[in-house]
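Record Iron ABC transporter permease, 325 aa.
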Amino acid sequence: MLWLLAAVLVLAALMLASLAFGTRDVPWSDVWSALGGADGTLGEAAASKRIPRTVLAVLIGAALGLAGAVMQGVTRNPLADPGILGVNMGASLAVVTAVAYFGLSSPTGYIWTAMAGAALAAVFVYTVGTLGRGGATPLKLALAGAASSAAFASLVTAVVLPRNDIAGGFRLWQIGGVGGASFERTGQVLPFLGAGFVICLLSARSLNSLALGDELAAGIGERVAVARAVAALGAVVLCGAATAVAGPIGFVGLVVPHTCRLLVGVDHRWLLPFAALLGAALLTAADVTGRVVARPAEIDVGIITALIGAPFFIWIVRRQKVRAL
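=>
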């Protein structure tokens, strides 16, 4: 409970920092006034414009952190992450293809298309990872995901390059970021994120059973295939919805669950809420950092999280106990 309280306080502090710091620093008095609805002064207007961006960063970070924890639980793979397993790039490829060749323009259509692409990519990578001797080992899944992600990224480039009318916007979206957020965009994706959160959090007990191994889980009455499919569905919904609105942001779902296990252990009833809170905190911190270090421009959060997550990924791979959770 102390760690839970600490996580909430850290997230609240980072949300306030997101309103106060950026290209223009805003006095704390104007931040509080903006939270009350005021936008009369320049500082209050700046803080007011940052509120939707902060809310979106919290939601996307929570979604990616929770999805990563669920994916690691479903596959019993410490290297599982929406970016590493190619799920985010699969969602990106589906959206780009639908926009370029089928005229997709509806925001809701973006979300449904991204979720479909994320699901197909997850099934494809898991199928490839299970081929050969030993089944779906963590290393085979990571290699299959990395290769698939690179292939999907190349296909995205191949689709976008000939289309000058959409190339500029998609290049920015492909990096991954929360700039240009609005309550309208957030409201469109909120029902999908809410459904994903509920499905994942309700899967906590099932994931605890799956952690014992399929045979033992079945022996204590768990319907292994159903439990794995439902939990994976929740993760895919979160990944697809997050990618549709913010682009393919990587490594949040890898870094956060491992950090949470160090704090609260492996019980998914605690791990999943903590993963959501710390994911929200990490993405909010990355967004603030990207705005502060490159003034007056900014660095998108997808770049910041990659700088954090790549060394973390190498460290996990080099650990001795990387075969399974």
